[in-house]
Amino acid sequence: MKKLYAFIKQTIIVSLFCTPSVLQATHIVGGEFTYKFVKRDSADHKLIYYNFNLNIYRETASAAGFDYRPSISIFIKQPNGSYKFVRRINPYLDEDNIRPVQPPKLPCTETPSGIGVEIGTYNWTEVLRDTNTSYLLAYQRCCRNNSIFNIWSAASTGTTYYVEITPEAQRANNSSPTFQELPPIFICGNEPINYNHSAIDRDGHQLVYRFCPAFEGGTTAQPAPLQASTPPFTPVTYIVPTYNANAPMGGSPIVKIDPNTGIITGTPTDIGQFVVTVCVEEYENGILLSRIFRDFQFNVVSCRRLVVSKLDADSVFGKKFSLYGCDTTTLALNNTSYDRANINNFYWEFNKNGRTTRYTDWSPVITFRDTGIYTGKLVLNPGEECSDSAFVEVNIGGRLNPSIAVQYDACVAGPVQFKGSVANNIPLSKIVWLYGDFFKDSNDLVTNHQYTYAGTFTCELFVKDQFGCMGHTSKTFTWQPAPPILIVEPSAFVGCVPSEVFFKNNSTPIDATYKVAWDFGDGVLSNEISPKHIYTQADTFTVKLLITSPIGCKKEAIFKDWIKIKPVPKADFDWTPKTINNLHPSVSFIDKSSSDTKSWRWYFSQKAYSNQQNPPFSYRDTGIQTVQLYVTNQYGCQDSITKTIYIEPEMTFYLPTAFSPNYDSVNDVFKGTGFLYGLKSYRMTIWNRWGEKIFETTNPQEGWNGQKNNIGQSVPEGIYLCEVEYITPKNEKKRLNNFLTLYR
Which residues contact 604 (CB under 8 A, 6 or more apart)? Predict the structure, then answer.
């Protein structure tokens, strides 16, 4: 009872003082949902009693606890295939239903520290009505470990555990399968696994196993939602192509599950944490009754074996080691096996000339009679449970002393011949040439290689005999022939004055030690390998190129009439009239370009354009306006010119001398008239004969209606003074004083 009280107290404190975002279950590592048929109601056989089991797994070292009252959502499948929420239930987790998951017992392997998993079991009974459709119960919770290897954004990806009761299962009073064993809290990387993940079915139906997708659920903002999201649920996103739902851990051989037995086999090669989901489908006469799944985090760790056989030698494969004795028949075998404290007995055995010889020294020194290949083995703790062994292959050979001879024509850019040799013509099992230009070859002792660029190269020869003895030598030489053909880009060029041409010299082999002489055909020369040149005259030019190697080998090419430079037209224009304003905005543009012009492109203000030779244009705005003209000749060569014109702002303003505000819609309001575009400042005031101001406005569109301030009493007939002040678009200050007569 004390443990139960402490558990409830801790749950209440967390509920009161932690926001939902703080309650993220970042170390919930798995779960499964199952059900068991109990009985049908004696009075109403349509009511079925089911016992439900929800197992949730968590890391014991984490701060994430189990939900004290989890929210389980019940859905029912609709005729159109969608799901409808029915109700929510909150089963209770008794502390007695929380227990540790025991680590797997691996003989001769040290159990990794810091890995612990607890299982919490929610068990309750629910009454459902027999229907012709499916029930689905779901629980969602966020989130998974950020260190998970095989899915994206694991820290913000939750999980969904659900179970579905099909109408066939309801009619058959069916119970779902249940897993026989708890999942392993760790498995050893690079070690074969043979884990029984099978289930049992109380009804004796056929069970089929497979890996299947895990599902998302919950969010970082709402880790344990009161209502699960409506099915179908969203699968997690696997990091493909390395991992997927059918191959969640990779491996070599790949980790897989037997569809008939539920046995998981394979060898995981990646150390880390992986989401693995096992689905179990239950069939009767080929009809699917139910499907359960276990979503669990598999921890693949580096396991330390207590007894390991090992040599300080080349590891060929697994527990096979190779040693080489070249120029000697006596070898010292350095035994690096561990742990010595766990090794109680050991021996070496070697087959020498058909006889087996045993050695009992930890690191023996063995003398062999002649060259050859000898096999043996090292056995640790023979006959004991924690034993291990390693196979050894000893290769006794002789000195190879390889050498290289190089032959080639200094001025011809052909292949170079390499001849290798070894002492006493010893048969070789492997020959590798490194030519010094990033290329290699495995071939005979005599080989040819074509270099693609000039320079000083160091060729290396590596050889190996049948006993594993190796030899190495190198030869340095200089290869600087003349290029067999001069290749230049572009192979033709047509442009306009001025044109910059980049001559890319693709001739090989050449480098900075070669002399390069260009003649561009217009009197300009260059010594660059790949030069740039600007042609400033219109004409056709022949290009010449001469390349001389450091030892005097020459190659010349003449590219006749290669470069064609065309003339450029001269753009110019004028316009009329010269004085333009907003009252008279139309302009006629006059082309004055050179006579070889064939097409015109005008760009005016306001994004307008024209292709006419002498286009008209009418401006909408005043001020400085930009005009651009692009002209093109018959060769496609182009010239442009930009000019500016000024559109003067103009305005007119007039005041009437009388008005009659008698509401007959004729001359009822007194205000100025005219073309007021560009008006910058405006003020109109009305005064009576006694000097009293009876109206004022700064809006040129607002007039006087014959009332005081346009809202007071109507003023009598008579003569009034009107004063108007304004600033024109040209910043000219204007002032008008006019008498006006008011009639009623």
Answer: 610, 617, 619, 625, 627
